[in-house]
Amino acid sequence: MRGAKVHTSVTPNANELFVIPTRNLTETDKDYAVAFCIPLNTAGLKMIASPYGRGHESTFTHPVSSGHKMMETLTVFDDVFVPNDRVFLNGEWQFAGPLAKTFVEFHRFTAISYKLPLLDLLVGSALLIAEQNGIEKASHVREKLTWLISYAQTVRMLTKMAAIECTVKDGIAISNTQVVNIAKLHFASNYHQALMHVQDLAGGLLVTAPGEGDLKNPETLKYIDRYLGGSSGVSAEQRLRTLNMISDLTTSEFGGYQAVLAIHAEGSLEAEKLTILREYDQASAKNYARSILT
Amino acid sequence: MRGAKVHTSVTPNANELFVIPTRNLTETDKDYAVAFCIPLNTAGLKMIASPYGRGHESTFTHPVSSGHKMMETLTVFDDVFVPNDRVFLNGEWQFAGPLAKTFVEFHRFTAISYKLPLLDLLVGSALLIAEQNGIEKASHVREKLTWLISYAQTVRMLTKMAAIECTVKDGIAISNTQVVNIAKLHFASNYHQALMHVQDLAGGLLVTAPGEGDLKNPETLKYIDRYLGGSSGVSAEQRLRTLNMISDLTTSEFGGYQAVLAIHAEGSLEAEKLTILREYDQASAKNYARSILT
Amino acid sequence: MRGAKVHTSVTPNANELFVIPTRNLTETDKDYAVAFCIPLNTAGLKMIASPYGRGHESTFTHPVSSGHKMMETLTVFDDVFVPNDRVFLNGEWQFAGPLAKTFVEFHRFTAISYKLPLLDLLVGSALLIAEQNGIEKASHVREKLTWLISYAQTVRMLTKMAAIECTVKDGIAISNTQVVNIAKLHFASNYHQALMHVQDLAGGLLVTAPGEGDLKNPETLKYIDRYLGGSSGVSAEQRLRTLNMISDLTTSEFGGYQAVLAIHAEGSLEAEKLTILREYDQASAKNYARSILT
Amino acid sequence: MRGAKVHTSVTPNANELFVIPTRNLTETDKDYAVAFCIPLNTAGLKMIASPYGRGHESTFTHPVSSGHKMMETLTVFDDVFVPNDRVFLNGEWQFAGPLAKTFVEFHRFTAISYKLPLLDLLVGSALLIAEQNGIEKASHVREKLTWLISYAQTVRMLTKMAAIECTVKDGIAISNTQVVNIAKLHFASNYHQALMHVQDLAGGLLVTAPGEGDLKNPETLKYIDRYLGGSSGVSAEQRLRTLNMISDLTTSEFGGYQAVLAIHAEGSLEAEKLTILREYDQASAKNYARSILT
User: Fold this and answer.
1) How far, CA to CA in Å, does A205 sit from each of A121, A124, A209, A211, D83?
2) Which residues of A touch D193 (CB under 8 A)?
3) Is C17 within 8 Å of C82 (Cβ atoms)?
4) For the whole model, what pTM was predicted?
5) Residue A6: helix, strand or coil by DSSP?
6) Cα distance from C294 to chain D (closest Cα, Å)?
7) pLDDT, tens digit (0-9, with 9 covering 90-100), for C232-259
8) Could you report the per-residue pLDDT of D216-264, keeping only the tens digit for each?
9) Which residues of A touch C (CB under 8 A)?
10) Coil, helix or strand for B127?
11) Do D7 and A223 touch (CB under 8 A)?
């Protein structure tokens, strides 16, 4: 095997690496129609890890990313030998498309499912900081909170419907591809707007707040306590912890990573659009329009 | 009874008129806490019908609205006498709110359910005219069609979920209020954008096409046939029929009526936003955010 | 001459008809590389007028469109003879592109200029009806009014800049093509959103209000006066006149005509996008990015 | 003097600190109606600097932020003595509003002016990476580039118009407040959308690319060169430098800082909306609408 794959996530944490085709292939591509599974320590298999987002160690300023980091690698096969008993596909190009499609269908459903806690956290953080900033009754704040709730809940309901409207093949439930892709596109194409609303409600302290050391130093803490306390008795520390969580989720390298993931991981915006158009029953829709005409 | 109600739809087609409070009332409002049901021909009951949208008789230029028109009235009660056995509420102000809310909950669910065929028709018409205009493979056309499909299907899936996530009280299923309102808001706040995309795909002939008489006159028909025929053998008449249907749905007074209905009927945009924010479990969302902080 | 042109506006009101190519041509298209000018009553020249939007005669319900209607025709040349002294181009295909482009450049600037009063009228009507409906101080109303103002003024400022940043050739000022197209795209891609906001502020009476006859009849007028009067002493008639103007501009066939014009007349959305990308100085922008890299 | 001000930018780099009121004051607030100027090393003046965004030292991974960082402080006045000859306002509450407004008017114009290079850099980077990724001719890529160009140029044109439509008072040009605020609102409310488009064009490597060390190590460089090179002979290093610049601008803490600045610095979204509505000539707009009615 010779080749490479960019952004393979958390591979260094795994024991075995599965490799499958990424798209439909024709007979002339048959050399690429391979699928196999090998241990990570196989000779010739190289992982070049990305340093992106590493190194934030303060649980105060980076409450989420200080403890969570997905390792991304450029994974290289430099003349890797794969034993026959680990080979699943070896030139059978007709199976490349179905295999790739099957993976995508399940993986994109996984994607919208695992994003729900992130969206809930954005909504919950927005509600919390609006309260701690003492602005939760302002009309424009309520408008933005409603937008965030509607966004998160629309993704949730579409995700549920994708599962409810599944088909069952050989005892395995396959979520509804069209609905999965509509959910993913809704999630992805509105994510940056959601970040804007959360940052809007949180305020500039997201990127200008004092650091951990200043809260531990009584000389500076007294000023922080006096001037940065929140609404209804919320301490400066509590409010700054909320702000730092939002900063970590939306303005840190972890936040940037999540934003890029939203539009690229588990399928790009354009891949989702293509799938929606392909999966929609266009003939029925046109027939319905024709039936009104006559 | 003395008072009036604007835009009461299809009342002249009914036999009986139900009247209920429209909102929460307090003790000082108790004179308004009335509910009753009377025949339409009761003395003192007046209906002033709107002439809006009347008078399009050609099934060619107005294939939908020539046969469909909801009558809207200003309904006036000019000292109307209501017999005791038709009275359901007579000053019991505590029941005004619950009664109004119950009506709205059911009515708004009806609203999103009955809009689905309209949205399907917009999608089907867009697919059909894109094909007849010979542009269905253009990249920007596919983008707009995908937007329309995603819009219609999102409203459909949210509507289904509102029913699936119902609660059952005394054997009666009550759809999920939060989801109903998210569906309605999604429908309403994107409807004009949908009109834009459909009109964009259809083209200027929506508002500049020849009329019925010119298709019946061989002298003009020969030019129309030569120059306005559609892609892949679609006749000028077929294409103009499709265009006229889209014009009727999006640029006629019927189209304008549907657009205003989208944002005002069965609750305004702002009423939907208020309901979403109120129905969302804010405490749980904030607790989830707090749980990540500690 | 043989051929046809769809949606030629107000041609029946003209004395002479100018004909020019609509796009770049190659040598093989040279038979289409013609430009000329002929009187409207030339033999073989036919105009098939569109009946769209005709017939609203009440200045009460249709204050604008009852007196204003652009006649649109399918204009057909059925073996029309053009005398030599009215011919400007006769096969010189190299001039087709420049001639078409020159026309478009001037015409699209005209387009954004003549739309400004329409946008001002939408803003003014929205402000007026918000006041007459007594809602002008509500936070969401102010938000929507601000959106409308920003929209109209952005188109105005871009239009002015297109003129200010002109180039002068042979004493003739040519507006800045890039800015013209950005202005036109901004106008066109937000017009339906503007309609939504105006309709939102006006309310359902746009499509359910009593007609002219009911205001002339004292029996019905007394109810209309009692129940449909506006805020701060505005009479029902005054308020209904404002509502009817907005209805005429946004929900009548005239309103539909304006909406389709916004996205199709004087260049489609896609034509504007192509022009913007082509007119932008991409090389300088890329060089600036490269200069930051090194 | 006693009090504090959050996010005072680059104060530690200054010699003198100017203090002015931030809003209109009434007589009861007269103790807050102060304006003065003092050296930064005055006793009792404390600056608590934010650690946000510090510590990226690689010019390879962080080409912009490794060399640029605005220091933000919580600036505290702990019983600071201000000599009489540095005092400009001392209880004259009538001047608080005008002084604050004057500052905001100039400062918000500065804001939109200094954002233009950032927007140009986003556009230039997007054009460059589209080319290096070999996707610049794809239809959806051209659509997104056109959006970015229109966005940046609209802000530029509005900024220019704000200067052109200035008023001159005592020889000092004051930019047009309404236009300034429309420009700022357009910039701020579309900035996150711009980030989405740039990230969309750049791809997932923004947050998964190899680091500087791996490019210096021949063992890993050979793989990077083989698999990550760009279109038309662009080396892997060149492409990664472009990607890292975009990552620095849009997904790093510097990128997060810029995003928060967009919506909070020099006035929030809501402050801009209030100003636009206040500065617009509502009476003329309503009169124009009235003139059409009669």
Assistant:
1) 19, 18, 5, 11, 31
2) 192-193
3) no
4) 0.97
5) strand
6) 9
7) 899 999 999 999 999 999 999 999 999 9
8) 999 999 999 999 999 989 999 999 999 999 999 999 999 999 999 999 9
9) 139-140, 143
10) helix
11) no
